[in-house]
Design brief:
single chain, 164 residues, alpha+beta, Peptide Deformylase, 5-stranded antiparallel beta sheet, 24% helix, binds zinc ion
Amino acid sequence: MAIRNIREYGDEVLNKKCKEVTEITPRIRDLIEDMLDTMYEANGVGLAAPQVGILKRIVVIDVSEDGSEPLILINPRIVESSGEQTGSEGCLSVPGKSGIVTRPNYVKAVALNIDMEPIEIEGTELLARAICHELDHLDGHLYVEKVEGDLIDNAAAQAVEEEE
Ligand code: ZN
């Protein structure tokens, strides 16, 4: 169990395409455990391997309130999407910021689990948004490329709210 350093916007590792996982080694099991610990520690709903500097197609997601529903997706791929949702999005690699992004409201993805067995996952709303966001990381894309309008500074936005 270990917390890894989260790479931040501007670090070129975040702009690289990740490689498929071909076998689950003890190192990959450790990586996945650490990714979950790092995500929960940072109060995130998702984390992709490149965010901790590893260019492999692995993401972890947990959109539950109490961190009780971890999803581990290896070599994930979106196979179906529909609808549209527009809302605020943030990223652990872009701390203190958020922005408005439009995503599908429903996605279906296929992936492998930690035993390299095929799984299928469907999500709507926040889970659909998280799947899209995390899978983008595996191809070197960040949500800031998709923001409608300006990136918002959360601290400044909160200060304005408190003044009002
Ligand atoms: Zn992110």
